[in-house]
Amino acid sequence: MDISEFFEPADLSYTPESSGLIRMGDKITAFLIPGQFPDYHDADIVLIGVKEDRNAFNNEGCALAPDYVRKHLYNLFPGSFEPKIVDLGNIKAGFQVSDTYFALSSVIAEMLEKNIFPVIIGGSQDLTYANYQAYQSLGQIINIVSIDSMFDLGSSENEVTSRSFLSNIILHQPNYLFNYANLGYQTYFVDQEALKLMKNLMFDTYRLGLLRENLEEAEPVVRNADLITVDVSSVRSSDAPGNANGTPNGFYGEEICQIIRYAGLSDKLTSIGFYETNPQYDRNGQTAQLVAQMIWYFVEGFYNRPNDFPFKNDEDYIRYRVAITDHKEELTFFKSKKTDRWWMEIPLQSEMRIKYQRHYLVPCSYQDYQTACTNDIPDRWWMVYQKLM
Asked: What single string gives the DSSP state of each residue in 171-191?
C-alpha cells in the first residue's frame, strides 16, 4: 500500500533553539517538503499527525495540535538512546470524518504489520475508534487503556464522537476488544449506571484519587494494554490549560509522564495516541510542551524495553505457586529476574491458550501475590478468569 497519498507535510520550520547541540529534531526523519515522503520501513517509531476535530465535543480547534506539539518535541534533547523515528506528517482531513478514520486505520494497520510503533498526535479522541479498527484488519483481540477523566460512552444511537467512541468500540461487530481499562476517572463526571455497566462488562476502572495515592498501581494496567488513548483533559487545567474541557482536578504533569513512561516500557503495547490538545486555549504552549514531553518519556521507555514478557524464556522467571482454600487449582505467579515485574497465569486448556495467548498471562503487582498468600484470590485474577471461562 502506498500510504503517502494520505499525508501532507507537517507545517513546521524546525530551528534548534541553540546551535551546535543535537536535538530530537536532528534525530527525526520528517515529511516537511511536498514530494519528499520519507522511507519509514526501517523505523522503530512513526509519528502520525491527524488534523481532525469535526467530531470533537466542545473542543473545536484541537485539529491544530500536531504541529504545535512537534515544535516542542523537536527541540527537546534526546536521552541515552539512538532513536529511529520517522515523522510521516499529517493525515489529510477527508471529505467526511469517516474518510479520515479510514486513512488513519489503514496507516496504523500498515505499521502494525511491519512491527513499527505508531504514535498518533490528534486531533480529537474519537480517532481512537480508527486506531481500534486497524487491529480488526489483523484479526487481533486487544486490550485498550484510556487515560481519561470519564468513560466516553455517550449514547449508542449517536455517531462516533470524542464523548461516545467507546460505545461504538464495544458495539462494533466483529468485536476484537478483550478488555478496556480506564485510568483516572473522576466520579462526579461519571454516571452511576455507566459504572455498573463497566462492572458488568468486567472492565477495569481506577479512580484518580486511588492512582494518585499509589501511581505504581497504574503500571500493570498499562503493561497489559495493546492500545493506549490519552485525553489531555485527564491532566489538571493548571498543568494543561490547552483544552476547552479542562477542569481543576486531574493528574499532575509529572504523574502523566510517569504513566506514559510505563507505557513505553511495555513489551506488549503496539500503539498510542495523544488527543484533545487545543492551541487556541493554551498558555505559552504549555500543553503542547507537556504532550511533547509525554512523547519523549514514551520514546525513552520504548528504547529501554526489558523484553521480559513471559513467553520469551522460562529461565528468566521465578515461578510461585499459591494454594487457595476451596479453590481446586493453585494460583501461579511469575516474577521477572531482570525487572522484578509480576504476572499471574489464568489456567486454560491448550486450544484456548492459542486463541488467548496474549491474555492468559496477566500483568499484576507484588500486592496481588501478597493477596493470594493471605488465602484470597486477587480481583485482577477473577476479572480475567471470568472472561476466559
From this structure: H-SS--EEEEEEEEE-GGGS-
pLDDT digits (tens, 9 = 90+) for 97-156: 999 999 999 999 999 999 999 999 999 999 999 999 999 878 889 999 999 999 999 865
Nearest to 245 by CA among 253, 236, 254: 236
Cell digits for 384? 480475567
* Count of Cβ atoms closer than 10 Å to residue 31 Cβ: 23
The CA distance from 307 to 310, in Å, is: 9
| Model pLDDT, residue 158 | 61
What domains lie within the chain, and their CATH numbers? 3-302 (3.40.800.10), 314-388 (no CATH)
**Residue 381 Cα distances to 22, 333, 342, 372, 377, angstroms:** 46, 11, 13, 10, 7
Q: What angle do CA 229, 88, 70 make, to 5 degrees?
A: 65
What confidence tens digit (pLDDT) does each residue in 42-87 have? 999 999 999 999 999 999 999 999 999 999 999 999 999 999 999 9
Burial of 167 (0-12, 13-18, 19+ CB in 10 A): buried
Q: Which of 185, 186, 180 is nearest to 199 (CA)?
A: 180
Judged by phi (left if over 0) then psi (alpha if -120 to 50, else beta), residue 3 lies in: alpha
